[in-house]
Amino acid sequence: MVAVYELHVHDILVVGHEDCGMLATTADSLCARMQERGVAEAAIAAVRPKLKTWADPIGNVEESVCTTVQQLRENPYLPKDINVYGAVIHPHTGELVILNEGK
């Protein structure tokens, strides 16, 4: 919001990356690690539903980027003249693959 309204950004680029650690992360794995580190069960239970909507859907980098691009394009708080692009970068080679041209 700040970038668009205060800094006058006209283009947004969503960049995912190959070998993303989030591909192996789930709400269950995060909750298990929290429990191992001593976080109270009540606190874990309170945050688990949010983690399920945030962590569990990321199973494919390309799909995740495209979903985020679509959500930004449909966001009622962003003006329709903002261009939103999607890409995936390979962190070892630097190759950048454009998945989604701006509108």
What is the fold's blueprint, element by element?
Layout: H1 2-5, E1 11-17, H2 27-36, H3 41-54, H4 61-74, E2 83-89, E3 96-100
Parallel strand pairs: 1-2
Antiparallel strand pairs: 2-3
Helix pairs in contact: 2-3
Report on the structure:
- The protein is of the alpha+beta class and 103 residues long.
- The protein has helices spanning 2-5, 27-36, 41-54, 61-74, and strands at residues 11-17, 83-89, 96-100.
- Strands 1-2-3 form a three-stranded mixed β-sheet, with helices on one face.
- Helix 2 packs antiparallel against helix 3.
- It is globular and about 45 Å long.
How many helices does DSSP assign? 4
Order of helices and strands: HEHHHEE
Mean pLDDT: 88
- Beta-strand percent range: 15-25%
Keywords:
single chain; 103 residues; alpha+beta
Q: Gist?
A:
The protein is α+β, with helices and mostly antiparallel strands and 103 residues long. The chain has four helices and three strands; from the N terminus they run αβαααββ.
